[in-house]
Amino acid sequence: MFYPKVQGPATFRRTRTAFGGYRHELTAAEGDWYDEENMTDRDWPAAAARGPRYAGPDLGSADGICAGDALYWTDAEGRLIRNGQPTGLTLTPGTARQFVFMGAHLVIFPDKKYLNTADPADFGSLEAAAEAESPVVTLCRSDGSPLEPSAAGETPPADPGDGDLWVDTGAETGGLKRYDAASGLWAAAPEPLVRLSAPGVGAGLKAGDGVTVSGLHAPEGSPAQARAEALNGVHVLTGAEADSVTFPGLLPAGFTAAGTVRLERRCPDMDYVCQCGNRLWGCFHGVDAEGRTVNQLYACRLGDFTNWQTYEGLSTDAWAAACGTPGPWTGCAAYDGCPTFFKQDAVHRIYVSPNGAHQVASAAVRGVRRGCWRSLAVCGEVLYYVAREGVMAYTGAMPVRVSDALGEADLTDACAGVLGDRYYLTAGDGTGVRPTFVYHPARRLWHRHSPNGAVCWAQKDGVLYWQTAEGRLGLSGPSELVAAVPESYVPWYCETGMIGFEQPEQKVLSRFLLRLYLGPGARCELLIRYDDGDWVSRGIVEREGVHSVLAAVLPRRCDHCRLRLQGQGEMRLYSLSCVLEEGSDNSWYFM
């Protein structure tokens, strides 16, 4: 007589030896973490806790930092600090600012000031202004010698001599002309220069500056009255000394100006600025200094960031163009040799021409979200930024969303930095906190770190720096520039997705096996959660080194379960195995 054989429940083992990153989706794949904090892929395919951050000094302000030849920031008094030492440049405190490098110069907006990084004693303003009371206005030649026409009017003199100069004031034929006795004709002479002479009239200005002249008036009834009014406007100085300036122009006669004459070298107000092709490029939307409503793009003169009003018909001239797309600008960056400007729903790329005929190409695509201009950063030859729909990767054509793994996080007020081949992003995620997300483009892995309070980032010599809203400096590693203290133990956790979600039957988890490494003083706690219930601890591991841990659990029938590892200190997880038994498809719920 034989007794019937009883078949035991089917048992299967699920083993993971390659771990992904943060994927906050209900159906997160095996090896990904549905929720995590302070994990990294630096030991991939193993999962590991990130290294310690370093706490730096209190900077005194949260206006911004930048890194080039040195690390720069501003203190509470607005002084520009270079590697911890104050420079002579003082800025307006309490202003979020942009630092742009152009050659050896650091240019700072919205202050419109610069610092020569090769000679920190050389600093100043992009703008300049000079005033003079009743300057003497005369004509001169290009060599500076005085020029005195023998006559002026719409008709030539009746009996001219050879070489005589006549200022033709006719509307169509006007200009300076010289008489040639051999031919008996008046020929056009080289354009003269107008000289303004008065104490201090050229203070702070230099030859080549594009300046706006205002307040220039000839005495009432003077023969130069009409022509003097026409000299008010923008001119390019051909010469500038402390007490005189010259620029192209024509007058029938010299005179002494009535009142105060003002000369200004102006830099337009700009929302965002970048450097590309040895020029600074900027954008502005709103009411400018002259009261005009503009939606404009700008470029300075080639190689000269102080001049934005030089228009001489040369390829090196400054440049400006109006933009037709609505809405304010939200950010800009130099990418792939093109200044690239963003609105929330558009991207404008400027294709720089060597002859000065720059072209603007616009595309109605997902642009930078308002308030996220500091999220623009190039990592691995790709430009990343935060749009309203998430994090975008832009290669010059159509942006592609790369933040699906972050779930429905609503990223706001984002700022970003790059260290090596990783993109670091700090942003509000709709939960009231500002976590830091780290993206590895080659592996397409995200990781979620605890909040670090960053409002701006900078990278120098393999160390990533960030400034917090409270004005403190944070570091990714030790630095020779500033003293910093590392975190003692980094708290971390990682939580799997639903185990058994793809199988309709009930399951029984009997045990799971981990192979992991713990550093000195580190600890790891194992927890399990059945069917969205409470987390149940299954023990704590504190033994240093690499070893396997077998965790037996009380068999419990469930539809699905989750595992969670949490602890502090150095940890690497090499493999995770779960042993499950299949149950029936009966459940407590019937329909």
Structure, described:
- This protein has 591 residues and is an all-beta fold.
- Among the domains are: 102 residues, Jelly Rolls (Sandwich); 137 residues, no CATH class.
- The protein contains one helix and 54 strands.
- The strands form twelve sheets. Strands 1, 3, 4, 48, 51, 52 and 54 form a seven-stranded antiparallel sheet that branches. A five-stranded antiparallel sheet has the order 2-47-53-49-50, with no helix packed on it.
- A hairpin with a 6-residue loop joins strand 12 and strand 13.
- The chain is elongated, with a radius of gyration of 35 Å.
- The model has no long low-confidence stretch (mean pLDDT 87).
Largest sheet: 7 strands, antiparallel
Mean pLDDT, to the nearest integer, reads 87
- Radius of gyration, Cα only, in angstroms? 35 Å
Uncertain runs: none
The first-to-last residue Cα distance is: 43 Å
Structural class: mainly beta
